[in-house]
């Protein structure tokens, strides 16, 4: 492998890792606030991508503008989903049953996408689709840069929101200790709902970023679910920094392996990492002591 | 927590699931009227007769082949229930074992040239051997992480079997030679209908035996509270592994039989997450704590799926239908149909005179008998009194026991985050 090629895949890996990090952050948010493993996250991702494609198809405008609609919409859907579905599960079996429930949601979305827009593969054509810039000898497609910028921007905003806003403080308190948060007057149910909405909003952004560069079809979410789940298990369920680091490492790893092994076999790095993690540190590399219990 | 449904006391009188505790089980027996037992026996005989006569009364070969499909679903759901029902570990990835069994059987026939049914059994052995390391890794985590790992396993195998086209045929598929090349199609279906029924019967007998064994009690203890079970000396890790391997092997055998019947394998359909979902849905719908729960669920869901296939064909609406069904089951009847119907019948039957497992009159009689034996034979008295221990406390004692359990179940998840730090 030449140095240029190596550098090229490294850059692409960082770009890919950024997108993975954004999506995995959403997953850890759900797990943090509700102890819910959200299988439907990647289905919402594909839904957002389809909405961006449809918006572009109908208006001819840049798909990024669809974020103005999809982000609030997904936020509301998240709040509704938490309030109407997740809270109805019995607390004793919440974690396990939530997997099945969100799985049902994922199937529902996949089925509806297929029904409304058919199973045909779709792709957005943009004026800057084919363009790429040369960065220190590496060719980087503009759409990939835009996607990465979008991911970096929203991860930054998420960080600021969690760190400095009153809502972020309440959310972090709810994640850390629900009863104590209730004692100091935080309405944890509402906060959990908003946290869920926030997670889905990241799916809206991620999906739109994905739509710029990928061919989309209804069952595409299965290709995302494995890597994303592997990332949060490797990082440790519920740990946002863990998810970010694992996403970056695995994204870069996948990108580097693509050159010698090809796309399909490079995917297996996620599963190899997953099983290695289970053998070495079942709770993940950043997870709390009891993360393996959920 | 990993339990598939809440921590209800396991003494389910109406359906005959025996309580793990000795005295309670013996106490239930005399109270149950003989008619209930006869009704269940009759239902069993009628059910068996229906299954056995189905090939002869099926109006056309299509219905017969649909019956084979439903029976294969029933096999997978019952096999799933060895893990999901006993330990409460929900595996969404059992399709991996189904596909592995199918491919192992197919490849052993094609590449090694073994006779079909020898290959089927060896395929089961292959699944067993593969499951041991996978189970050791997967069972290191619980709950949601376990579900994630189980899904990942299907996705890996799908990836490998698609990418490794030279060996597995990849997306072109793998043609499995038929075991009975001379048979006409309807006769072929008929033979396989009985083969699937036989496999199902073997599984049901195994499940029934485990349900009544000490091993089964240990597995149920894992379902109710794994930490407590471990603290009480149940070798939870080994028990879980044995249950997982048993479950996987039976699923693999069902897959191998399917391969022999269907004759054409494609990774997309063999390693499909949907198949794993169907297993969970069927088992949950019927009732995971009951011997015939998965079978009942398989009949309902399987018939529904065949109907959707006919009705909606190419559209994706069958996914929506499955999703809605799964959502409704998870939200409104996580315990399944059998308990729901049983409690309905109980409402019309004679009311229980108390919430206790045995009535006050029976307790009095038991205590008298115990006292009588105590005076006659002093050495047996000790054990008899000890046996009666939990029931000695009167109504208060028993009621307190139950409320403690429910309270405990409600408290546990809330204490999670606190321990987490």
Automatic annotation (TrEMBL), chain A:
Family recorded in the similarity comment: Belongs to the binding-protein-dependent transport system permease family. LivHM subfamily.
GO biological process: amino acid transport
Origin species: Isoptericola jiangsuensis
Residues annotated as signal peptide: none
Cellular component terms per the entry's GO annotation: plasma membrane
Protein topology in the membrane: Multi-pass membrane protein
Subcellular location as annotated: Cell membrane
Keywords: Amino-acid transport, Cell membrane, Membrane, Transmembrane, Transmembrane helix, Transport
InterPro entries recorded: ABC_transp_permease (IPR001851), BCAA_transport_permease (IPR052157)
Main location: membrane
Transmembrane segments: 6-29, 36-55, 67-86, 98-118, 138-162, 191-212, 224-252, 259-280
UniProt GO molecular function: transmembrane transporter activity
Superkingdom: Bacteria
A Pfam family hit: BPD_transp_2
The name this protein goes by in its record: Amino acid/amide ABC transporter membrane protein 1 (HAAT family)
Automatic annotation (TrEMBL), chain B:
Membrane-crossing segments per the record: 38-57, 63-82, 89-109, 115-139, 146-167, 191-210, 241-261, 267-284, 291-308, 320-345
Composition bias, Basic and acidic residues: 402-421
GO cellular component, one term: plasma membrane
Main location: membrane
Annotated Low complexity bias: 15-31, 371-384
Keywords for this protein: Cell membrane, Membrane, Transmembrane, Transmembrane helix
PANTHER family in the cross-refs: HIGH-AFFINITY BRANCHED-CHAIN AMINO ACID TRANSPORT PROTEIN BRAE, HIGH-AFFINITY BRANCHED-CHAIN AMINO ACID TRANSPORT SYSTEM PERMEASE
Biased composition (Polar residues): 1-14
Natural source organism: Isoptericola jiangsuensis
Keyword Electron transport: no
Membrane topology of this protein: Multi-pass membrane protein
Keyword Transmembrane helix in record: yes
An example Gene Ontology molecular-function term: branched-chain amino acid transmembrane transporter activity
Domain of life according to the entry: Bacteria
Region (Disordered) location: 1-31, 371-421
Protein name: Amino acid/amide ABC transporter membrane protein 2 (HAAT family)
Subcellular locations according to the entry: Cell membrane
